[in-house]
Amino acid sequence: MKKFWLDTETPKILCQLELTMKDGSKEIILSDDSWKATTKGPIRLASIYDGETYDANLEMPSWTTNSFIDKTWQPVNVFPISDDIRLEPKRHTTVKSKIKLTTKQIFEKDGAIIFDLEQNMVGVPLIKVPMKKGQTLKIRFAEMLSPRWNFLHRKL
Questions:
Q1: Global pTM exceeds 0.85
Q2: Confidence of residue 143 (pLDDT cuts 50, 70, 90)
Q3: What's phi and psi for 57, nearest 5 deg?
Q4: Where are the alpha helices (DSSP H) in the chain?
Q5: For the chain, what is the mean pLDDT?
Q6: Quick check: helix, strand or coil at residue 71?
Q7: What is the pLDDT of residue 3?
């Protein structure tokens, strides 16, 4: 069994949340040493290129509520910000759905079901799969399939 987070960098975050209240007052929340975290949650690994490994057995119901008890979470590691690093906010518009793509072809290949959208895109799949405890669902994405309709493997 793979030991997650032992052979990777510790997850990191640097954030400043600026809140403007209805009455016009403002509050700023900064990430600091008062924050707590865990590496025992359902997201086991995450990568911009290779997706994420999610273990539903480790879900934490209500973790986003004020009533969640985080006593098993650990204080975060805090690192100083060097003066030679310039930090600036990124003012992006919110991500919005533009279009919904439908699958153009569905076929089975070597025990896998392949959904071909016939288009390179950025997006999130919406799926519903009945699963039982202990089962694994592996979802992979590719910009294109090989001529034999297999996934092209990217060397890491």
A1: no
A2: confident
A3: -65, -20
A4: none
A5: 82
A6: coil
A7: 56
| pLDDT tens per residue, range 46-73 | 777 667 788 889 999 999 999 999 999 9
Under a CB-based contact definition with an 8 Å cutoff, are residues 37 and 49 in contact?
no
Largest CA distance in the chain: 62
Rounded to whole angstroms, how far apart are CA atoms 30 and 15?
6
- Which pair of structure tokens corresponds to residue 20? 């403007």
**Which amino acid would we find at residue 114?**
I
Instruction: Supply 40's token pair.
Output: 């025992």
Environment class of residue 8 by beta-carbon count within 10 Å: exposed (0-12), middle (13-18) or buried (19+)?
exposed
Tell me whether strands 43-47 and 36-37 are parallel, antiparallel or unpaired.
unpaired
Residues 6+ positions from 142 with CB-CB distance below 8 Å: 151, 152
Round to whole Å and give the CA distance between 120 and 150: 16
